[in-house]
Specification:
The chain has 1 helix and 4 strands, in the order E-E-E-H-E. By secondary structure, it is mainly beta. The chain has a 4-stranded antiparallel sheet. The radius of gyration is 13 Å and the shape is globular. The model has no long low-confidence stretch (mean pLDDT 93).
Length: 68
Amino acid sequence: MKLSARNQIKGTIKSVTKGQTTAHVQIEVNGAIITASITNEAVDELQLVPGKAAYAVIKASDVMVAVD
């Protein structure tokens, strides 16, 4: 599959935590964690489980940075 998004970061699923309708999927990339919020249905369809290789695909027009 080809995507227009340029930020495709390969990692390994660290955890999948399902809620009522939405799941949080943590992907570990070189020791850093990227968390995605996706539907439970998507988790099931993609068969996401810890240890499975996955891509974090990031498509955003803005990135904000804040400090205290």
